[in-house]
């Protein structure tokens, strides 16, 4: 299987991050203008959180730099070792789809239980992908010292 295919879900996740970033920018600029917040009142995350009412998009943006870090590492490891399989690719896409769903829920109607379900499914998909990747490496003898 062509290892370059692992970059497709990776790119979709990067696009999602830029979409959420642009949405956060739009929401924050609108609120800064509406409330006439002086930029100096936004010196750190605590001060910023105190100034804004709509923080869901900013929270989601931060979330996109937690578990996805492990996803990016996995994708690069898969590509580097050439160990892509249909099951691994499916798990990668499942992770990305659940992250997209999680972000949509978080940035729109923000139902915690719906968001949590998407998060858990994605987390298990990522864990499963790492487990499968480790198994594939073991079968190839990559993890066994010579």
What are the main properties of this structure?
Four Helix Bundle (Hemerythrin (Met), subunit A); mainly alpha; 146 residues; single chain; elongated
Molecular structure report:
The chain is elongated, with a radius of gyration of 19 Å. The chain has helices at residues 7-35, 45-51, 56-63, 67-81, 86-107, 112-140. By secondary structure, the chain is mainly α. Helix 3 runs antiparallel to helix 5 and helix 4 (67-81) runs parallel beside helix 6. Helix content is 75%, strand content 0%. The mean pLDDT is 93. It has one domain (3-140): Four Helix Bundle (Hemerythrin (Met), subunit A).
Distance between the termini: 27 Å
Largest sheet: none
Which second-level CATH architecture applies?
Answer: Up-down Bundle
Helices and strands, in N-to-C order?
Answer: HHHHHH
List the domain count as a whole number: 1
Mean pLDDT across every amino acid position = 93
């Amino acid at each position: 299987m062509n290892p370059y295919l692992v970059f497709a879900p990776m790119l979709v996740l990067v696009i999602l991050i830029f979409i959420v970033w642009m949405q956060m920018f739009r929401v924050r600029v609108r609120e800064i203008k509406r409330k006439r917040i002086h930029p100096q009142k936004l010196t750190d995350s605590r001060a910023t959180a105190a100034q804004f009412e709509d923080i869901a998009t900013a929270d989601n943006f931060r979330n996109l730099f937690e578990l996805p870090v492990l996803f990016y590492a996995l994708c690069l490891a898969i590509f580097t070792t050439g160990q892509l399989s249909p099951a691994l690719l499916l798990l990668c896409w499942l992770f990305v789809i659940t992250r997209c769903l999680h972000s949509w829920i978080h940035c729109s109607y923000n139902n915690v239980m719906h968001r949590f379900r998407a998060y858990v499914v994605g987390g298990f998909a990522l864990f499963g992908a790492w487990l499968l990747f480790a198994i594939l490496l073991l079968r190839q003898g990559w993890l066994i010292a010579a």
